[in-house]
Amino acid sequence: MNTNRHPDQKPATAARIYDYLIGGTHNFPADRSAAEAVLQQAPVARPAARANRGFLGRSVRFAAEAGIRQFLDVGSGIPTERNVHECAQDVDPTSRVVYVDIDPVAVAEGLELLAANKHATSIRGDVRDPSAILRHRAVAELIDFSQPVAVIMCALLHFVQDDKVASAAVATFRAACVPGSYLILSHTTPPDIWVDETERAAVAESEQELRAVYARQTATPVRMRSHAAIEDFFGGYDLVDPGLDWVGKWRHVGEDEAEFAGDSRLAGILGGVGVLRAEGA
Ligand SMILES: C[S@@+](CC[C@H](N)C(=O)[O-])C[C@H]1O[C@@H](n2cnc3c(N)ncnc32)[C@H](O)[C@@H]1O
User: Fold this and answer.
1) 239-260 average pLDDT score
2) Which of 160, 187, 210, 228 keeps 20 to 30 A from 170, CA to CA?
3) How far, in Å, is the centroid of ligand 1 from the Cα of 73?
């Protein structure tokens, strides 16, 4: 990306802070400074973001190997290396992917990256208006809702403050999908369930600071949710093994701990994959 095209004073966005955290180059000075402020408060944010990206890759491959050929990735961020289209199209090169993000720069970068890929595209959309996403021309062209679809909402819904709005978005996508469709979802969770008593106060303070950075420097403040509240998003779906788990642990195989070097719980992000049940089942 040619960062010189854009003015330095461009405000930070969650998409590009995340891109910086996972080691990408699709970010601007404001994003890098916000990301450094996040890292100062919570150094775990970088391995956590990488662990989340690792979960995304493994879960997409899992769905593709189970026969899913269509992916609607909402809150996709910038589809840089090892993103959904690469994992899905490794399994079947004709797999179709629509990336959706609220950040116009992420969408523009996505279109540039996908220019040569006729089975994948990137569109602007807001998860708080799921019907508009479902009505979008590119979605209609690439996704056939009479066949199973994987709807992906990874590290997205913690940017939706209102619980009812977040649940309604998940429900709208669920209603558009046929049984056998997948929901791939990850979400940050507050530290009180993942650190012990002695560390709790210090971690809670840095978590507050971290949320303050997003609130001050981006348009998308963070709302963490409990394990139970995240599991509720999977209503109507059967969670595949191991259920809702720490993203660094979910179906992680082999010795490669690079994406999360420490205790995988410290990533603070839970992820799961659900398969839509037939109504009444
Ligand atoms: C932390 S990134 C996650 C990227 C990718 N899903 C992943 O897990 O690797 C969160 C993304 O959600 C996007 N986002 C935030 N609020 C959104 C909204 N209301 N609608 C759509 N996207 C949104 C941000 O722009 C950002 O790209």
Assistant:
1) 80
2) 210
3) 9
Write down the pLDDT at residue 105.
87
Q: Is the CB of 99 under 6 A from ligand 1?
A: no
Q: What is the mean pLDDT of the chain?
A: 87
How far apart, in whole angstroms, are the C-alpha atoms of residue 142 and residue 119?
7
DSSP per residue, 61-108: HHHHHTT--EEEEET-----SS-HHHHHHHH-TT-EEEEEES-HHHHH
Asked if residue 2 has pLDDT above 70, the reply is no
Contact 244, 227 (CB under 8 A): yes
Ligand 1: residue whose CA is nearest its atom 24: 15
Rounded Cα distance, 51 and 177, in Å: 28
Statement: residue 272 has pLDDT above 60: yes
C-alpha 120, offset from chain centre: 17
Radius of gyration of the chain (CA): 18
- pLDDT tens digits, one per residue of 16-53: 998 998 888 888 999 999 999 888 877 778 888 888 99
Q: Is the pTM of this model over 0.85?
A: yes
What's the gap in Å between 61 CA and the centre of ligand 1? 20
Among the listed ranges 20-24, 185-189, 212-216, which one has the minimum average pLDDT value? 212-216
Q: Ligand 1, residues 76, 162, 211: which to mutate, most atoms within 8 A of Cβ? A: 76
Among left, alpha and beta (phi > 0; psi -120 to 50; other), residue 147 is beta
Phi and psi at 61, nearest 5°, equal -60, -40
Instruction: Say how far apart CA 269 and CA 108 lie, in whole Å.
Output: 28
In testing the pocket of ligand 1, which one of 100, 220, 269 has its CB within 8 Å of the most ligand atoms? 220
